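Final report, Chapter 2: Outcomes

The project's central promise was a pipeline that accepts a single protein chain and returns its three-dimensional structure in a standardized token representation, suitable for archiving and comparison. That pipeline is now operational. To close this chapter, we reproduce one record exactly as it appears in the project archive, with the input sequence first and the structure output second.
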Amino acid sequence: MKDLTLLIIAFLSSILCRAQVAEESVKLEDALLWEISGNGLQKSSYLLGTMHTVEFSFMFDSISGMQKVFSTVEQVATEIDMIALDSIRRKTPYGANDYFMPSDTTYSMLYSAEDFAFVDSVLSAGNARYAERVPAFWQEIYISYELSLRSSKHKQKKVVMDYFVLQFARKNSKKAFFLETLQEISNKNKRAHKSKYSRDLKGQASSLLFILKNPDVLSNIYNELDSLYRAQKLSMFSIDKLTKYFADLFEGLTEDDFRNNDLLKANNSILLKERNDAWMSKIPKIMQQGSTLIAVGAMHLTGNTGLINQLRKMGYTVKPVE
């Protein structure tokens, strides 16, 4: 079950917040849009928990008060400049300069003859030079492909929630703030990925084999998370709730498989707690400049170090928009 555990962790990282689940559960209402007021603010600001693969129309069709928020806010704040990131991705192949296989290792050395024949047949069909990259690289590619495939099925192809928020700001001459630079998140991703890419190659190979032999698992994980998000079950996106949820969903998986995982612990610290803490040094100053829509991955809202709890500790009133 170790391979399944790692796959779920990697998928959560890609789809909900570029981070992992919160380290401590804090009781919150099930809502994705929150009003921030008090503590000296002249006008209310708003906090929106997004999912990076969900189409923008979901905001207006399903989140109460969203239309009014867009009509009243004076500025927006997002995690990063996704429009600039999209441009960079089109110009630079994914992982072009990273994750090469050691010169003294081949894929045939990582598998039994039968498993190698299977892996080779699948990967070579997509890239004849696949063996130049470590197995963990191809695991990320398969996860990215699944997410892209899902996004392309939406009617509003490519226009997801976070991207739309920035487009809205540009089209309506509203100021846009970014809570971190592309370089900052790139550096954090590299640190968080260190555990995954520093795994021994046989461990990486085992995880990749699991994905290739169980293609429906990615779809199942995505469908479950997507359903929870669309039901606006924010309270589910905490370590205790999600570990129990997936342990119940997949036979043979236990909550301890997650709690004892080094990759999960590293990502909690680097990609969730560190980012939230850094953002909280900027968000109050941004809100003082005018009514702001702050749009970040939903998992950044939950937990003891989540934005909602941190804002409340600073003296702000944070409540669901009804």
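Archive annotation: The chain is about 55% helix and 10% strand.
This record, like all others produced under the grant, will remain available to the consortium after the project formally closes.
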